[in-house]
Amino acid sequence: MRFHPRAAAGLIHSVPNLIAAIQAYLDADNASPRAFVRTATTQEILTEVRRGRGALQ
Q1: What does DSSP assign to residue 10?
Q2: Where in the chain are the domains?
């Protein structure tokens, strides 16, 4: 997930301003949508899932 640059920099100081910034970001991002392109194989994903589960135990 990408973070809104102003929020990541600590430049938003209220919840209403944060909501407005997020909405503006989503509107701009949705204006030119891109298809999700999977670059990993199913086997690579499952290997990472298993590694992650092992790290959590």
Answers
A1: T
A2: 5-56
